[in-house]
Here is the input.
Amino acid sequence: MDENYVRRVIIISWQGDQKFIEDFFKECVTVMMESGGKLDAQESSVELLETCGEKAPAEIQMDFCIDSGHGWLKTTHATLRRLKIASEITRFSYRTGETVYLEEDVDAPALINAFLERGIKINFTRHHQNNSPIRDLPPYNNDV
Here is the structure.
């Protein structure tokens, strides 16, 4: 977790519901353990701000991974749950731990629309590989 993220959480926690803050920190620890100690501060701060009723950032940065045949938008399962679209994601997306790769035809647009409905613009960073290892990941499962 980076230092700026911790500062945002501390500032927001004074205004937020105490039970929510405790639950959020438990979720952060779980996500960090599953992802090898890394957590996407940008996405998580959006989730926390929206849940606490604060104004979310106007823009976020997301990774769009492509290979010669398909593309996937990288996000977290926590983001899908917070935006209430986790159960709508198809088995054509992939998930490993907390990281989710949303296929470009149906699932990625669902996430993009959820952000746009909240007034959040997404800037994409494209990553290209000839044969993406994403294809070898387990299919998305909302229950894991």
User: Anything to note?
Assistant: The beta strands are 59-66, 71-76, 94-96, 99-103, 121-128. The chain has five helices and five strands. The first strand starts at residue 59 and ends at 66.
